[in-house]
Amino acid sequence: MEHIRFMTLERHIIEGERQHPEATGELSALLSDLALAAKVISREVNKAGLVDILGFTGDENVHGEKVKKLDIYANDMMIKAMDHGGHLCAMASEEEEDIIHIPTQHRIGKYIILFDPLDGSSNIDANISIGTIFSIYKRLSPDGTPGTMEDCLQPGINQVAAGYVVYGSSTILVYTTGADHGVHGFTLDPSIGEFLLSHENITTPKKGKIYSINEGNYLYWHPGLKKYIKYLQEEDAATARPYSTRYIGSMVADIHRNMLYGGIFMYPADSRSPYGKLRLMYECNPMAMIIEAAGGRAIDGKKRIMEIVPTSLHQRTPIFIGSAEDVTIVEEFMRKEVNG
Known about the structure:
Layout lengths: L8 H10 L7 H21 L9 E5 L5 E3 H14 L5 E6 L6 E2 L9 E9 L10 E9 L10 H4 L6 E9 L3 E6 L6 E7 L4 E6 L10 E3 L10 H11 L10 E2 L5 H11 L2 E4 L10 E2 H14 L3 E3 L16 E2 L1 E4 L1 H15 L2
Parallel strand pairs: 3-5, 11-12, 11-13
Antiparallel strand pairs: 1-2, 3-4, 5-6, 6-7, 7-8, 8-9, 9-10, 13-17, 14-16, 15-17
């Protein structure tokens, strides 16, 4: 019988920490708290069709979007799982307008977490994969004091960890603590309640054959992007074209698939959304850290996503993310068109 290696998420995190004698264990404990939140959210997502948790609450979030009940539940679970561990000085969520302070009765830690509690939630009713995305930074302000907006508004290159959870046919948690440590995926075994290592050292192919974009917005795109999409649809054996198109409309699911198989995910700016639609702090920075650690690239069309200096919590940005060669080619198309 083939030897089965049981590597739980907790053990993986602890073993990674042992490679750093200076580690305090706080980041490990924070990631463990996150894993617990993911398990609880996964349970609710999986039974969402059976209980009165689907549908809208009737409220709108800070972006003017209708809020679904499951979004609120996921947001509450993330906060409850992490506000009392003593590892954080503040949090920020895509669902909340301002930063979330740690209750005064709890110890204040040295980390900041920003998260999108339920990405792709418009797909809930159709039983399509959705996810949670998170991004962790070390605070800039003095230890022991409440976290500040400045702590939250750091460029992506300052991230110390990032990850996402896909709630699909199975629940998978993917995380990285930087390019030196790789990207690892863990699948939840609900029968034992543990995330088990299923995707070790994920490396994304240098070039893929899949592109993911909402082509319904074609009319409003940058001319260089229109030319790039037409280029992908042309037949050319030497460059393995045409590409296939796959677009779920759930960023976590689209990027997870493309990271494994190779390809590019794009949510560009257009004439109606000049800054794009996805959020820099909750979606683009953490995904950029993961993809870069897996050997890919992530840009806003001109520069590296993780080098953008944020000015507001809910800032939007265009994004082109995936296999390194594919991102470089779209970058060239956009530049050519700008420069004539």
